[in-house]
Every structure is written in C-alpha cells, then in structure tokens.
Amino acid sequence: MKKKIIGRVDKVDFPNLDLFNVDVKIDTGAYTSAIHCSDIIENNKMLKCTFYSEGHANFSGKEVIFETFSKTNVKSSNGFKENRYKIKSEVIFFGKTYKINLTLSTRDDMKFPVLIGRQFLKNKFIVDVDLENMSFNLKTQ
Q1: Cβ-contact 10, 135 below 8 angstroms
Q2: pLDDT by residue (tens digit) across 21-40?
Q3: Contact call for residues 71 and 51 (beta carbons, < 8 A)
Q4: Are strands 81-93 and 70-75 parallel, antiparallel or unpaired?
C-alpha cells in the first residue's frame, strides 16, 4: 500500500462518535492516539462517554456508550504514567475509513482535542511537518 503524505495537523471525521471536522494533531512522539472526553462513567460493564468541550465547538455533548473497551497504561511526555480507558472506533482520512484505537483523556486545556499517534500512522502515512490539513483540503475541493 502506498503511504499518503499527511501534515502536522488536520481535520477529520469520527462518524461512530458523531464528531465531524475535528481538529487533530499528528504526534509522532506519541505511541497511542488520544481523544478528549469530558465525562467517563463505567457501569454494568458499559462505558458511557460524553464528548463535550467549550473550546471545541464540534464536541457538543454527544453521549456514546461502548460495550467493548479496555484499560491501558499511557506514559505522557512529562514522564507520568496514567491508566486510561481505550476504545475502538473509526476515523476518516482522505475519504477512507480506518479503524483506530483511542485512549480517553481530558484535553480541555489543549489546543487539539485529538492526538494521532504512531500506532495508527504506521504503514499508512508519511508526516511532512511543513504541511497542514491535507485530508481536509482534499475533502473541501
């Protein structure tokens, strides 16, 4: 498979989460991908997540329930380990739907509500840090 060239930031869709034109940062320093989740409740072997953020208009408060999820340890760039919930979802880049693992994190104070890490990028994309919104620009043409 030929790898697509992606920039350092983009706007993508997460149709299963009802999130569209979401700002993402391509983070080759991160192994896993992470998405902002404002409220997480585990109850009766189900995970209820609320995707809300005042700073990100597309995160309007949609609740999504996951029957399948796990937990994983994530080491942040400052060296702290955190045990996070991990979900499986889908993301659309360049008009193609890909499966993606996402850890759930509070990213309200961050510029980008989503980080796309190496685990997802591997074998699919080459990152050119001089470029931006390659997938989104293709979508809007």
Answers
A1: yes
A2: 999 999 999 999 999 998 99
A3: no
A4: antiparallel
DSSP bridge partners of 47:
42, 66
Q: Mean pLDDT throughout 40-53?
A: 93
Any idea what DSSP says for residue 5?
A: E
Contact by Cβ (8 Å): 40, 85: yes
pLDDT one-digit tens code per residue, 101-126: 999 998 877 889 999 999 999 999 99
Round to whole Å and give the CA distance between 28 and 127.
8
Q: Which two tokens stand for residue 111?
A: 């510029």
Tally of CA atoms within 13 A in the half-sphere of 127 that contains its CB:
15
Report d(CA 36, CA 17) in Å as an integer. 12
